[in-house]
Structures are given as structure tokens and as C-alpha cells.
Amino acid sequence: MESTTTPQAAALPRAKAAKAGARAAGATGPRWLPWAKGAVFVAAWYPLARIVFFGFTDRLGANPIEFITRSTGLWTLVFLCITLAVTPLRRLTGWNALIRFRRMLGLYAFFYAALHFTTYIWFDKWFDVAAMLKDVGKRPFITVGFAAFVLLIPLAVTSTRAMARRLGRRWQTLHRVVYAIGVLAILHFWWMKAGKHDLALPKLYGAIMLVLLGWRLGVWLLARWRAARAGARAV
Fold first, then answer.
1. Domain boundaries, given as residue ranges, for the chain
2. Is the pTM of this model over 0.85?
3. How distant is the alpha carbon of residue 41 from its chain centre?
4. Which residue among 44, 62, 153, 177 sits deepest, i.e. has the most Cβ atoms within 10 Å of its Cβ?
């Protein structure tokens, strides 16, 4: 008996298999991705390893607590900037695999922020609430830094894929808080350094943050303009 299967019908399973293969490839990413993520994961421990090494070799300076506080704070800002740079770099270069690094980099920003905060409340103030409240009154940059850290907590907690699926569109809205965190972090750093008239680094990181957030604002405004133009043409 002759087969009644047409060439088009026979091609459907092959097309579905090809699409499934493409989806699987997209899910796993390029072959170099696991190695690159492993390298970034290890490299991100460098700031902490440096502090530990300096501690064992007595190279933390005359004020070790201040050294640790300043170092963890600066690296929090570095990882925050790198995390915010992932999306612009992905869109400008077309390297979509870069998005796979964003969550890990964001968690490292939170990790160093937690170390920064813990160093202050534990080793600097020894959990003395009265002393911390006095500091807040005298040094407003501490209040701003604390606000940035508190806002980082829900982003770290909801960073998993399971939470992203559970929250749906609300996840994206929540994680836009990172823009406010970036502004608060720069303000914290600026006010802290202004007391010593040392604004070289705050100006540098402020410029980087301005570019990263300005790019996003530009993309948003361009999308709004194109949507308005398309709507006008439709009318």
C-alpha cells in the first residue's frame, strides 16, 4: 500500500526538532559560557581574598576597620556598575550570552554591600545602636548608604528564576529599583569623600553611573517616540 504522507507533512517533525534543538542551544548557551562564568565567579572573590591576605600579612594600615569598610564599599560600587553595564553591552555588541552573568554580578554587589554594612555595625560600632544613631545625625551619607543596602535586599532575595516566574511582570518592576540604588550609592560615596575633599573617585564613578542610567533613559525615550510615531501613522 502506497504511503499517503506528503513531503510537507514529513518535513513538520524535522522542523519541530530543529526548533527544539535551537531552543535547547539557547538555553544552554555557547560552549565557553560555563568556563567564562566559572572564571568570573572565582575572580569576583579577589577583593575579599585581598583583604584576608592583607590581614594575615599586617598590611591593612593603621586603621584596619576603615580599610575594610572602604574596600568593601568601593567594590560594591564596582560590581553595581558592572551589573548595570551588562544590558547596554549586550545590546550594543549583540552578545546575548552576557545576560547570563548579570544575576551573578548583582549577587556579588549585594555580597560586598553586606560585608560593608556588617563591618560598620559590628567591628566599627559593636552593635551600639546609640552610637549608630548619633552617626546618622552627624553623617547623612550613612543614612543614604543604609537605604541603598535595604533596597538591595529584596533584589537579592528575588534574583532566582523561580522568583522571576512567580512574580511575572512585577519582577521586572521590582528590579528597576536598582537604578535608584545606583544613584544612592554614588551619593553615599560622594558625601563620604566630600568631607576629606577627595572627589576624584566619586566623580569617576558618578560619570560611569550617569552614562549607564542615561543610556537607559535614552532607549526608553526613543521607544516612546517610535510608539507615538507608529500610532500617528496608524491614525
1. 32-222
2. no
3. 14
4. 44
